[in-house]
Amino acid sequence: MRLVMLILILIIYGVRGKESEKVINTEGNPDSVVWVVQLSDIHFSVHHPDRAHDFHKYVGPALKTINPSLVLITGDLTDGKSKDLLTMKQNEDEWVEYRDVMDSVIERSGLDKSLFFDLRGNHDNFGVPVVGGSLDFFSKYSINGQLGRSGSVNSITVETQERKHLFVGFDSTMSIGLRGPTNVFGHPTDQLLKDLDLELSRWDSQSVKPVTKISFGHFPLSFSAPSGSGRTLEDVFLKHSISAYLCGHLHTKFGKNLKRFHQSSNRSLSLHKLFQFNMHQSSFQNNVNCPPETLSIQEFWEWEMGDWRKNRQLRILAIDSGHVSYVDIDFQSGSKKTIILPTFPLDSRFMSTSLSHHKYECQSVPPSYETIRALVFSVSPVVSVVARVYDSRYGNFDLVVEAPMNMIKHANETSRGELYVVPWNYKAFEDASPDRFWLQVEAIDIMGRSTLTELRPFSINGHRFKLSWSWKEFLVMGCQWSALYYPLFWSALGCMFFFLLLPKALVLFSNKIYTYKNFIANKSFANGVLWVLQELCRVRTLWFSWIGYLFYLILSPWFIGHVFTEGENKGYMTYIGWAVQTSHGKGKHEYVGAPDVMVVVLPHLLFVVLPAFFATGALTAERGIYREHMLAFSGKKKDDVDLNSRKSLSNGNQSNIQSNFLFSKRWIRKLLYVVCLAVCWKHFMVRLKPILYSSVHAKV
Question: Given a cut of 90, is residue 365 above it in pLDDT?
Answer without folding.
Answer: no
